[in-house]
Amino acid sequence: MKIVIADDENPVRYALRSMIGEMDASWTIAGETSNGEGLLGLLSEHRPNVAIVDIRMPGMDGLEAIRRGKLLSPMTKWIILSGYSDFRFAQEALKLGASEYMLKPVGPEELERALYATYKDGRDLLLLHNERFGCNLSALVNGLISVRLEDREGIFHQGSFMGAVFELDRPAGGLGRAEAHEAFYRSLTDCLEAHLHSGVLLAVVTLPGGELAAVSARESGNRCGGKRQAADFFEAVKRIAASASGPDEAITVLMTGECRGFKELGGRLSLLQRVRDLRFFCGFGEAIEYEAWQGTAGREELLAIGRLLSAGLEYLQDRQYLNFQNALSELEPLWSKWEIGGRESEKRSLLRYLRHAAAGIRLPEDGLAEGMIVELRSYGEKVLREGKSKEDARHDVVAQVLRHIERHYAEEVGIGQLADLLNVSPSYLSTQFHKKTGMTFMKYLTQLRMGKAEELLIGTRLQIKQIAEEVGYFSTRHFTKLFTEAYGKYPSDYRKPV
């Protein structure tokens, strides 16, 4: 997106150029001039998206330059600068089609707001605004920043949110996670871009446990059709999950329902991560609405059975046969007790999970706990007999992750992606990582990046924007927020002379 600047004061042009250069948006300053005649030449040559024009310049003033310039570059939008708070100037500028009228001196936030408002229909700026939302949302759900730091009147406090958490299950011992998960992630991000419109913000983020989540946010009420757009997005997301599910991968979608502000959304996302194993009972492999899974959230016997089943199959995949047998021994009495009064829909859902997770298992039609446990024991023995011997590398997955992110911290890296490469589940890797390091993956990665940024601030003369990019952040603003949270001061204040 191209900008031209016309102002007869060199310090003003320099300040505008510097402020625009520090913005996250991909603005390009195509040219600058000190008078109206020069502006007409720039308009004819570059056909810019936006022109920032001083209202009073020698020779041809800004208003006359706009009148003539509209013929040369009809698609250009106009921002007027003035050193005079004269309503007559503003009125004339608006008649000529100016989008913004600003009084000097202009601050960076005011200028950025004016540029965004002027070009708000531009697709690139819409994507930028949405990407900022995604960065802040990811930092919030992973505990890297506090929602208290966000504008009290802004979207994170006053907006209407909705989320969907994706639980991806592959059969025990199943291979080929990485390709399937990468394809699913690409489908989600393509869907996001297709449904992105003014009035709704959309993001796909990774939760602390490694699960993918899709989130929408909009202003409360129904302005700009945001409510309808958010609903359409989640319907499309559910269809993507359904089409991606099959014998090799079952995707369960857990919906949060509508939430007021991030605080309520964050609470529901955290609850979903704690009760994720309830999906085995209330609609495995399907989209489960908030009311459905909330109805089972308080049933501890279901949660205990689900956790033991999930842990048992993880033990089996990890070739910890003794732990697998112990999990089955704990599971049998709980299963027998639940089976007496369990709902038929819960039993059908659980059978779907078992047939998927333990591919090839022969399950008794009557579903009796004793028969189920016997079959699971036999299945475990079969997996161990047929499975190829594994080295101890899998038990050292955290060390592999630590080595990887030390080398690739500046790249886009997530715990789900690394889990796929190591052929373990994201929840398993997340748990092991926290046990070994004492913190979540995202907190560790952010701490590493901030340490590298500190070294660059002290030891180089790189610009803040360059340092942000060097440690893995496209957004200078997002990097600054994280750095300030970590060190208690802005990067520019932290820097010491080299």
UniProtKB/TrEMBL annotation:
Supply the name of the protein: Helix-turn-helix domain-containing protein
Q: What is the lineage of its organism?
A: Bacteria, Bacillati, Bacillota, Bacilli, Bacillales
Q: Which CDD domains match?
A: REC_YesN-like (cd17536)
Domain HTH araC/xylS-type spans what residues? 399-497
Keyword Phosphoprotein in the entry? The reply is: yes
Every copy of the Response regulatory domain together lies at 2-119
Q: Which organism's genome codes for this protein?
A: Paenibacillus glycinis
Q: Which superkingdom, per the lineage?
A: Bacteria
PTM sites of type 4-aspartylphosphate:
54
Protein keywords: DNA-binding, Phosphoprotein, Transcription, Transcription regulation
Q: Which Pfam families match?
A: HTH_18, Response_reg
Known InterPro entries for this protein?
CheY-like_superfamily, Homeodomain-like_sf, HTH_AraC, Sig_transdc_resp-reg_receiver, Tscrpt_reg_AraC-type_HTH
